[in-house]
Structures are given as C-alpha cells and as structure tokens.
From TrEMBL:
Signal sequence, start to end: none
SUPFAM superfamilies the record matches: CheY-like, GAF domain-like
Gene3D superfamilies documented for this protein: 3.30.450.40, Winged helix-like DNA-binding domain superfamily/Winged helix DNA-binding domain
InterPro entries in the cross-refs: ANTAR, CheY-like_superfamily, GAF, GAF-like_dom_sf, GAF_ANTAR, WH-like_DNA-bd_sf
Domain named ANTAR: residues: 176-237
Official protein name in the record: GAF domain-containing protein
Keywords on record: Kinase, Transcription, Transcription regulation, Transferase
One example GO MF annotation: kinase activity
Length: 246
C-alpha cells in the first residue's frame, strides 16, 4: 500500500512573509523617508512571494497614477505604459480594490499593449494587490514573474497578506509624520513667542511703555510692512543687540 504524499505546508511560505515584514519594520525604525520605505516594500515583495522577479508600487495622487518605486527601470516603464492608455492590470487593482492575477498570455485579450510589452521584456505573469493605507496613500503593489503559467492562488494569498501588513506599516508611518509635523509647528510657535516676548520687553524698557502698547507697536509695523510678526520682532531684537554691542 502506497502512502499518500505529505501535504505541502504553508509554514515556510509564511516564514518568508514574516521575514520580509520584519525587514520592513527595521527600515521604518531607521528611516523617515517614504521613498526609501517604498523601495524596501518592493525589494521585500520578492522575498515574501515566490516567483516575483521584479516589483513596483503605484501611487495615485488625485486621479493621477505614478510609479513611486520599482526594483528595475523596465517595470517602471511597463507601469508607465498602462498609465498612458489609462488601463492595465495594475490600474485594475487600484480601481477595483481586488487582487489581479494573470498570465501575460491571458492578459493579451484584455490588455494587448501591456501584454506585448511585458512579453518583450521577458515576463510571463503578473500579480497586483491594491494598497490603501489612508485617504492620502493609495495605489497598488505590482509583481512581475518570469514564468508563463502565471502566479498560483497561493501566491495571491501571500501577496494579500503581505500588502495588508504593509498598509498597517504605512498607517504607522503616516501617524509618525503627522506627529513630527505637529511637534515642528509647536517648536516654531514657541520660538516665535519667545522672540516676540523679547522684543516686547526691549520696547517696554526703551520707550517706557506697557506690554500691550509694546505689542501693538510690533503688530502695527508687521501690518504696515506686510511681514510676519516674528520677523519684525527678530529684526528689532537684532538692531537693539547690534547697537548695544557697538
């Protein structure tokens, strides 16, 4: 009696996805540049999903798609060809919010231009997943394979798992950027307040006037010159300090 073949376990494949995501998380801890992060999203897609030879990320700003990152120039050109005609498998993933999985042979019926260019570039299959982090970042992760028989359902599921985690990483990144911008605005506001208070104090001492009158003089000059109050205060403080030093 022959024993049945052991079932193929998904554990090694999931380990690859986990490893790719751990690498992305490490990048996020070290970098705050979105383009660098997207570059690593593409690079790690080749580890997370078997059969991926090249990868790219399409981002849509307004209604205009563009390739934000790619592992090679050729896939960037293949993406751009789809943008020019307004149709193709990567745009299909963006529009429908669903995984697109096709061989180049199958794609020839619906997207002949893309299929011809992909075949000429040496690709035989395509897989894309929608990438939606929030209202600002949306698009697709595009994967190109060399094999003619296309990606299997297993690869599609792995890509879906990978992109879901990438979306979560993007949300963390976006919150970090917003927090950093808020901190920068607060720092600027505190700096502005400090120099304005310094200018007020100098005016009060020089002209022997109250705080409200000193502030009113600064505001009046700011409006007259059509410049920010902080700049008026900085110039005044510099003049006073310079005259005192002289």
């Amino acid at each position: 009696m022959e024993l049945p073949e052991p079932a193929v376990t998904a554990a090694p494949l999931l380990d690859e996805v986990t490893g790719a995501l751990e690498a992305l998380t490490a990048v996020l801890r070290q970098e705050d540049d979105l383009l660098i992060l997207l570059r690593h999203v593409c690079l790690q897609a080749r580890h997370a999903v078997p059969g991926v030879a090249e990868a790219s990320v399409t981002l849509v700003i307004g209604d205009t798609p563009h390739t934000a990152s790619a592992t090679s120039a050729i896939v960037g050109e293949l993406d751009a060809g789809q943008y020019r005609i307004g149709d193709g498998p990567c745009l299909e993933a963006v529009r429908t919010g669903k995984i697109v999985r096709t061989s180049v042979t199958e794609a020839a019926e619906r997207w002949p231009s893309f299929a011809g260019q992909a075949r000429e570039a040496g690709f035989g299959s395509f897989l894309a997943a929608p990438l939606v982090a929030d209202e600002e970042y949306s698009g697709a992760l595009n994967c190109y394979g060399r094999e003619d028989d296309g990606f299997a359902e297993t690869e599609a599921q792995l890509l879906e798992l990978y992109t879901a985690a990438v979306e979560a990483i993007f949300r963390v990144y976006h919150r970090y950027v917003r927090a950093r911008e808020t901190a920068e605005h607060l720092r600027t506001a505190l700096t502005s307040r400090a120099v304005i208070d310094q200018a007020k104090g100098m005016l009060m001492a020089i002209r022997r006037i109250g705080a409200d009158d000193a502030f009113a003089l600064l505001v009046e000059q700011s409006q007259r010159e059509n410049v920010k109050l902080r700049e008026v205060a900085e110039r005044f403080v510099e003049r006073v300090v310079s005259s005192g030093a002289g």
